C-alpha cells in the first residue's frame, strides 16, 4: 500500500506529531488513535471501491462530497494510476469533510468495510462477443470477490460492473453472502434517465417524478408506465390524454431513448461517469444511513412475477434499502405484457448464468 505522501522524508516526525502541538486537558483521556483501545466511541463508516477507473472514481468522489463515509479505500490493479487518484482526492482535503483515504492493489486495504462497491471490469474488445466479455469479467471477479468477502464478512456488496445483473449473481455465489447483502446497481440509473426525460417534458424537477425501469439493466429493461407519478399524482393517463401520438410505438421510442442514453454518452465522451456516480452514491446513502428508500436495484428475483423459484437470477425490482441491505421487494402491479417481458429477461439471464460454471 502506498502512503499518500512520505511525510518522514519531508522531515515530519512519524509518531504522535500532534502531541507536540496540542496538550491534553487536565484529567483527560490519552489521545485516541484509530488502532488504540481508546478509539472513538462512534463506529466509523468505511466504504471500499474496487476499480479506480472512470466509474469508480466518480462514485468515490460523490461519496466523499456527500459525506457518506469516514474512510474510503480504493483498490485497482494499476498501482501508479491508483496512487495518483488517491493523492488527487487527498489534495482536496482542505475543502472537504475529514475522510481518510487509503489505497492499495491488495484487497487487505478494504478490511472491515461496511460497503464494498465493485466497478472493476474488463472492457469489450472490438468484435468480442458479450459472452466472451462476461467470461473475462467472471475470471476477474474470481480474483476480486473472495478476498474482499474474507476481509469484510459483514459488508454489503454493491456490484456496478457490466453486465451488472449476471455479475451480481456471480458476486453472490463467490462471496457466500446472503442475497439480502448483495445488490446490483441495476436500473437505478436507467430510472433516473426515465425520470429526467419526463421531467424535461413537463418542466418539473426530476425529484418530483416517480417512474421505474425494471428488469435487466440493458436492452430488455421494462418501463413501468403505470408507475409514473408527478408530485404524487398518477400521470400516465393525463400524458396519454394530452398526447394523441402517445401510442405503443411512441412509448417504445421513449423506452429505447432511456436504454440508449448510456450508448449515446459513451459514443460522445468514451464512457459514462457522473450519473452513475450520483446513482451509486444515492444507493450508498440509503444503505449506510438506513434510509429505507425504495430503489430499482438488481436483487435475487426468483419467485417474483412468475419467475421460476428454481431460476436463481438477479434483475431489477423496486427494493427497500437500509443498513441490512435489501429489506424487501415491492410487489408491483404489472400488466401481463410487462410481467412476460420480465420473465423473458430472467430466462435469458438464467441461461447465461448456467454457462458460467460457478
Ligand atoms: N451498472 C451501471 O449502471 C454502469 C454504468 C456505467 C459503467 N458501468 C460499468 O462499470 C465498469 C467500469 O467502467 P469504467 O468506465 O470505470 O472502466 P475503466 O476501464 O475506466 O475502469 C476499470 C478499472 O478496473 C481496474 N481493474 C481491472 N482489473 C482489476 C482488478 N483485478 N482489481 C482491481 N481493479 C481492476 C482497471 O485497472 C480500471 O482502472 C464497466 O464494466 C462498465 O460497463 C456500469
Automatic annotation (TrEMBL):
UniProt EC number: 1.1.1.27
Recorded GO MF terms: L-lactate dehydrogenase (NAD+) activity
GO BP annotations listed: lactate metabolic process; pyruvate catabolic process
Any Pfam family: Ldh_1_C
SUPFAM superfamilies: LDH C-terminal domain-like, NAD(P)-binding Rossmann-fold domains
Active-site residue numbers: 217 (proton acceptor)
GO cellular component, one term: cytoplasm
Domain Lactate/malate dehydrogenase N-terminal: 45-184
Similarity field: Belongs to the LDH/MDH superfamily. LDH family.
Quaternary organization: Tetramer that arise from random association of LDH-A and LDH-B.
Protein name: L-lactate dehydrogenase
Organism (species): Triticum aestivum (Wheat)
